[in-house]
Design a protein that fits this description.
- The protein is built from seven helices and seven strands; from the N terminus they run ββαααββαβααββα.
- The chain is an alpha+beta fold.
- It folds into two domains: 42 residues, no CATH class; 119 residues, Winged helix-like DNA-binding domain superfamily/Winged helix DNA-binding domain (Arc Repressor Mutant, subunit A), CATH 1.10.10.10.
- The strands form three sheets. It has a three-stranded antiparallel β-sheet.
- Helix 4 packs across helix 7.
- The longest helix has 23 residues.
- The protein starts with 7 loop residues before the first strand and ends with a helix.
Length: 174
């Protein structure tokens, strides 16, 4: 007894164009993507220019730094291993983002006051770091004293801040 793979049939309409695809699912999808590429030449360019968050990379990166406890989302490394004030602020914003993604926090933002109390920093210093990060486009103010990390900020965290924190943790563990 042989198992027959079901054929997929797909009709695509775009403006005055119509295309019908039929066959094995992989072949139909390949044909659809070729059609989209031909009809919408800018599609490839736009997809290459789109900045997105690689959630899997982010979660892998914060493993050992952020954890879910019964009390909430917590940082598992001491303040002195985070690096400077800027890294500590960014890590607090990342913690809020990850907590929100996991459904452990109601919002993806955190107040400047919460950052001050979590980092043990001074209000003026935390405010200066938030202002600096906002100027870079890494952080946005979403309400009175509330901040959240942006997509650009998450990518900067993954490419710049996280390696610094990881090397600081390794250095302090030696």
């Amino acid at each position: 007894m042989s198992i027959q793979e079901a054929n997929l049939e797909l009709v695509v309409k775009y403006k005055d164009l119509e295309a019908k695809f039929s066959g094995k699912p992989d072949d139909v999808l390949r044909s659809l993507f070729a059609f989209v590429k031909k009809v919408l030449p800018a599609y490839d360019l736009f997809s290459e220019l789109t900045l997105t968050v690689d959630v899997q990379r982010l979660l892998d990166g914060v493993k050992g730094l952020i954890a879910f406890a019964p009390e909430g989302v917590v940082l598992t490394i001491p303040r002195e291993k985070m690096g400077g004030e800027r890294e500590a602020v960014i890590l607090q914003l990342i913690k809020a983002y990850v907590g929100y993604l996991a459904g452990r926090m109601e919002k993806d933002s955190i107040s400047a006051g919460e950052i001050v109390s979590s980092t043990g920093g001074k209000a003026g210093t935390v405010g200066a770091r938030l202002s600096e990060l906002s100027s870079l486009g890494w952080v946005e103010r979403v309400g009175r004293g509330e901040y959240r990390i942006t997509t650009l900020g998450i990518n900067a965290f993954l490419n710049e801040t996280l390696p610094k924190i990881k090397s600081e943790v390794e250095r302090k563990n030696e």
